[in-house]
Amino acid sequence: MHIVVNRSSAVLVGALALVATGLAGCADQAPQPTSSSMAAAKAPSCLPKGAQAVDVDVDGYSTPVAVVGGGTKGVVLAPQNHGDWCQWGDEIGHLADEGYRVATFTWADDGPDAGKASMRAAAQSLRTAGATELALVGASKGGTYAVAMADELDAKGVVVLSPPATFDGLSARSAAVTYTGPLLVLASRDDTDVPRDESYQVARPDDGPSFLEIPLAAHGVAMLADPGHAEHVTFAIDDELTRSFGGQG
Fold it and tell me: Where are the beta strands (DSSP E) in the chain?
């Protein structure tokens, strides 16, 4: 992969220093990690022009995070297992074009502590860059983490594609999580990686329409690449994010 230096990441690094020294304790912000630092990084060419790339260290785990777009409404795009910050492809640019500030990342490592650190790093990067509200969008492993950590990260809404009911010991089952905000679970009918019925356990069918079955075998982000259904999946994500942020896209 061709790598280019993103000089604008220094702005984000400087903003974090301000947060760490003066704003991290504000009562109206979500709880911050116990220790964190940020350093400028290189942005991969898979990201839209103007992306800010940083390495964020949270509690000893280093996560490469990229932030794209602007505005106060932030969206975390959590990759699948062993996924990186290029995995969401065109969706990053699409959501930025829709007016969101978007963060995606490469998982720091395997295991629940590393996974949680990566999610916290992405959320922190968005808030540091100027987002005041966050929604979480995750695929497969990223979906499990998004639901399991939605309360901790003060998410306004959650959209997940093909989420396992449990991953790394974290449970995303509706009966096991405390998050009660807007939620949409998308699952492929014939998914052989995570069965449709397992993803259904994450939804809350008794609390409004929170489950959408797609007539595919595609898993996770692959739903967005299917020529027959990509537009439908994209619309569903857009619509749920609009709902999550109070009806304003």
Answer: 3-5, 36-40, 42-44, 52-58, 61-69, 73-78, 101-105, 133-139, 155-161, 166-167, 170-171, 183-188, 211-214
Contact 181, 134 (CB under 8 A): no
Q: Which helix (H) or strand (E) holds 234?
A: helix 230-244
| pTM of the full structure | 0.87
Q: C-alpha angle 186/189/192, rounded to 5°?
A: 100
CATH topology of domain 3-244: Rossmann fold (3.40.50)
Q: What is the number of residues in the chain?
A: 249
Q: Which of 17, 9, 70 lies closest to 41 in space, CA to CA?
A: 9
In the block, which residue shows the tokens 């709902």?
243
Helices H / strands E in the chain, number of each = 6, 13
pLDDT tens per residue across span 210-245: 999 999 999 999 999 999 999 999 999 999 999 999
